Amino acid sequence: MTNRLAQSNSPYLLQHQDNPVDWYPWGEEALQRAKDEHKPIFLSIGYAACHWCHVMEHESFEQPRIAELLNDRFVCIKVDREERPDIDQIYMHAVQAMTGQGGWPMSMFLTPEGKPFYGGTYFPPTSRSGMPGFDTIVNAVADAWENKQSDVLCQADQMTNHLQESLQPQPDGKPELFSRWIAAACKAKAETFDAQNGGFGSRPKFPHPMDLELMLRHWHATGEDRWLNIVTVTLSKMADGGIYDHLGGGFARYSVDERWLVPHFEKMLYDNALLAGIYLRGYQATGNQRFAQVARESLEYLIRDMLDPCGAIHCTEDADSEGEEGKYYVWTPDEVVKFLGEARGERFCQIYDITQEGNFEGKSILNLRRPLELIASSQGLDYETLRNELAEDRGRLLEVRESRVRPGRDDKVLVSWNALAIDALALASGVLGDARMLEVAQGAAEFIWTQMRTDQGRLLHAYRQGTSHLDAYVDDYATLITALVSLFEADGDSKWLARASELADQMLDHFSDTTAGGFFYTADDHESLILRTKDYHDSSVPSGNGEAAYALIRLARLTGNERFEAAANLTLRSAVTVMTEQAMAASRLLIALDICLNPTQQFVLVDPSAESLTKLKSAYFQAYRPRAVLAAEVATGSEPSRDLTIGNLFRGKTAVDGDPTLYQCESFTCKEPATGTAAILDALGSKN
């Protein structure tokens, strides 16, 4: 017998439709029942690819004994954190405040009004290894509600007040902004750098693409190789480790060890989009072909395995298949030799650390213990021959792997995560010269614009199987603005800037905190929760306010729109405390600060020939230009009619004497143009 979750559109909620727990989705029916019956709420939050969410479901939510305890004494609500990040954000902060840590599954107990009073993450069904059992906790919480309710309500009020203060920070006056905060943040982050293995901290180890991008920018600004070294060591070590899928491309969520060997095998769209972006920028900065290869393979993974027929990209792939974590990805030497032959198979096993004893539960996760160049040199092999043969071997094993039972996939489409991917794909189309990646980026953006908006033109957050729903959040708007700007730079179509400007106006109209600055996470007409948060701290994705400031400042530097520039500046001023006192979680804000405080180079390319323009744009994208924007179009010798959105930057700029022409500008004031292909390539050759 199914429960109410059977009517949901969320793959995560549908996973729980057959639980004996009397689950409700978040909504008025559940909340009103809690108030009417004066029952506390048990709120469980997770997501479809979450391994420990599956474990807790099997151990607790599928068990009639525990289900009976929950059903008798609580109103039980299940939430997909990917659909409702607004709910997740509030209660994750509460769990962290209560326990000092967070994660999923999140298990939270609330008053009928939604105020949190007790919580945690994963609980075993019964007490073990020093952890309290979920059955014990359920009984204890129910007993406290029945016999010590005044204390519970007081605790809930105190926690709600704490959340109000911490999630709606107020700036102290109108503080100034200083670039020295970037240096201080990089220095603080560098103190946790693992020089041997790359990355930050020990175990578990997460990718930090936004931190790496901040350090790459700081290297570019200062010329200090220390910062570039942190980036390149980390990118190299991650690409060699088991966290990277050497057969199919793409990265897992994180590594359970310090050297990136054993991943938590779930694959997330946002990780792969953000990591592809930093690998592309690493390639621009260094010319390291390995970085370009990893970026290409990661994006090809998304296109091959995660692209929905609608043209947008799915959310996640599970860690588990056939009930076992990582089963889809691991190998034995006998399997490899069977499909590659003895000589090639044994060589492959040696290079990719596939052994009889294994490195993960008796089997082996592919990883490179040494770079291929060193392997080829030490064995007297030609590097290019080895590289090509290994590529053939990986392709063969990928074909074999695809015959296995694949991990489950969450086939939702989320605007913000798709926007991160569109941004990376647009950049890749220029850096790698890959027209297919541009087509996918354009298709996903077009789908969002035509199918994930209301009749009033407001964004919707999620889509699945023909249905778009849920009001969008500020990070949906901000990341999509960023993506549309990147699409304009990639293909020169001014409709992307017009759409970005429309979204920016909506974001300012509906999400702005007109009193203190910055942006609320939800719109002014969104469903009311216990508080309206302001998101300043990066997590696995950029913070809402960091991305909003970044998007607005980039858009302003292309369009000259003073409203956007002023809003970005005010957002940064509202975040001074975060940037100065909590810099470890503020990289996106600090990246926006770097653009805001420094001149932006505005490159305008005008060329009568589409073929020639493509070649010149490719030259632009080969260099790392963190403080630059590009506007390029095919044009005749006379000034064409242009969209008003980009009018200021293009005004007066023509193809001089019918030749390709490059204008280099700052604050819409330009130097003498470079005319002719040779002169333009020379001008673009320096890393500006």
Automatic annotation (TrEMBL):
One Pfam family recorded for the sequence = Thioredox_DsbH
Tagged with keyword Cytoplasm: no
| Superkingdom of origin organism | Bacteria
Keyword terms of this UniProt record: Hydrolase
Q: Which GO terms describe its biological process?
A: carbohydrate metabolic process
Alphabetically, the GO molecular function entries are: hydrolase activity
Record's InterPro entries? 6-hairpin_glycosidase_sf, Ssp411, Ssp411-like_TRX, Thioredoxin-like_sf
Q: Coiled-coil segments, which residues?
A: none
| Positions of the Spermatogenesis-associated protein 20-like TRX domain | 2-164
Q: Mind telling me what this protein is named?
A: Glycosyl hydrolase family 76
